[in-house]
Amino acid sequence: MENKLYVTKSRLPDKEVFFRRLEEIFQTAWITNHGCHVKNLEMSLCDYLDVDELLLCNNGTTALMLALQCAGLAGKKIAVTPYTYVATLSAILWMGCTPVFVDVDPETMCLSPEKLRKCLQDSPDIAGVLPVHVYGLACDVEALDAICREKGTTLIYDAAQAFGCRYAGKGLLNYGDYSICSFHATKLFHTAEGGCVVSHSAAAHQTLARARAFGHEGDTHYCLGINAKMSELHAAMGLSLLPGTEEEIDRRKHVHASYDALLAGVNLAFPKRSSKLDWNYAYYPVLLPDENILLRVQDALAAQDIYTRRYFYPALNTLPYLKAEWQVSCPVAENLASRALCLPLYGDLEEKQIARIAASLCKALADPS
Known about the structure:
Elements: H1 15-28, H2 36-49, E1 55-57, H3 60-70, E2 77-80, H4 86-94, E3 98-101, H5 113-122, E4 126-130, H6 141-151, E5 154-158, E6 166-167, E7 170-171, E8 178-182, E9 195-199, H7 202-212, E10 216-217, E11 220-221, H8 232-241, H9 245-262, E12 277-278, E13 285-287, H10 291-303, H11 331-339, E14 340-342, H12 351-366
Parallel strand pairs: 2-3, 2-4, 4-5, 5-8
Antiparallel strand pairs: 1-9, 6-7, 6-12, 8-9, 10-11, 13-14
């Protein structure tokens, strides 16, 4: 088991720190309904992420559904990237929205502003835009914000992979009308299961808070709601992990640098990163020359107990359960999805393990069989 290397490894807090928080919960018997641990984590995350308002949720998908509902987008057309994890699309579909796929930029792998502008011109009934900061790499936020302001279109960023990223000197979650983040156990910061939604006005924050808790306060019912609250147990995990997050990002940065050095000159491509971005080093994605080579490399690594993942495959516009009219061609995203592979990455990945992964990858690429 110790020789097996997986694409990710959940970070765990110091046991004593976590158990002390659990003891507090046992003493109060307050398990959910916005207890003190949830409130404390919300305040701490506002400070860490450089945002004014933040609401914790039970996962990132419900956080996105809340943003869509409270922005008045339920049942409407949403322009969305086809290159991301399926949860982005799932939230749209669960809200009864119609996805309009917009292809991505071949270098950044994020939603293309140029293609979005044309899409909004061709389909003026699109009510919302949902880009993703894929791998935590920032979209062209200036261009997307300008286009959506010009068209009067609501802009919601899926920042599930972008915890802790900063852009042009401020927290990346400040951009757009709403941003959501995931705190799933695979993320660099997590609450085992969880997420958050960020808004930028008191009115939006209040609407989200009510919708998160069934749509009512006391006996007064204000709106359609859902149970999207985070429990005290999950918040305790987040509070225990948050202080070590900067150290985790620094360790991941070191892992990245080691991979970069070992894979220099190898026949691989990488997504482009903005010079304005302070990245969280959440993933190590590589682009293989073609899908056949990717599958051969993935199998060869698995034979060495090195388990990679095809983040993100397939392109969402090709999913078989979509209506035929939604399955528009997005050739850039489809090509990237066929070639992208994420290598193991977590803060305590050792140098000898990184060297083993890189050597196995290079050997697999060099072997034509």
